[in-house]
Amino acid sequence: MSLFVASLNSGSNGNCYYIGNEQEAVLIDAGISCRETETRMARLGLSMRKVKAIFISHEHSDHIRGVTVLAKKYQLPVYITPLTLQYGGLRLDDLVAEFMAEQTISIGGLLITAFAKIHDAAHPHSFTVACGDIKVGVFTDLGAVCENLIQHFQQCHAAFLEANYDEEMLDSGSYPYHLKRRIRGGMGHLSNKQALALFIDYKPAYMSHLFLSHLSKDNNDPALVHNLFNTHARGAEVIVASRYHETAVYHISGASAPAYAPLAGLQTTLF
Hints:
Layout: E1 3-9, E2 16-20, E3 25-28, H1 34-43, E4 51-55, H2 61-64, H3 67-74, E5 78-79, H4 82-88, E6 96-97, E7 104-107, E8 110-116, E9 125-131, E10 134-139, H5 147-153, E11 158-162, H6 167-172, H7 177-184, H8 192-202, E12 209-213, H9 222-230, E13 237-240, E14 249-252, E15 256-260
Parallel strand pairs: 3-4, 4-5, 5-6, 10-11, 11-12, 12-13
Antiparallel strand pairs: 1-2, 1-14, 2-3, 7-8, 8-9, 9-10, 14-15
């Protein structure tokens, strides 16, 4: 068993993550437009025909901006909690499919499990996606490292993990005090230091890929955070998920596998 994963975009300007096997896939969040989602997937050789559902973590606009158009165009069920639906002001009609924390939902050969997280939203959740014994986690928009996060992180072969800000850059930056307080106040986002501590202390030996996600445009530096984590990688490949473009598609299996990057001009849909 294996999974194919990619970040289509990661940051305060939009978040969307693709996870699937050879038959079906899901999107975790849909924070970029339908057109941009289609464009980025096409560049990677990924087909929307394989996408069977969208899972929404919380109602902030960078996670739901594109969901209504995307879901209605492809008639995709949107797994979302009632509070997130309400506070997001979404009109999804009969496409709404509710989920609960610790409930496992089967989408073909994929098993998606949600768990509660700490974030300043109405009803926020993180997700793991499993196929057989391979599991990938999407852990972003985290105010703090909690026991739920630790438990699920320890089970993952790959993870999208928030490393939002460098503490010194935030302190010396131009953000107003109230925004700095919100970011680091225990309900906002994880710093590089907090995320690194989780990685060092709880990375399972079989974790092959770590995708550093939701980096701040103003308070972090991709090269800085990549170097920081790569020093402690212990066999894992460290990738920075960009706020400007998609990553390659990565093949997550029992052993580390190289990324798939489509050849220029390739038209055949592979996944």
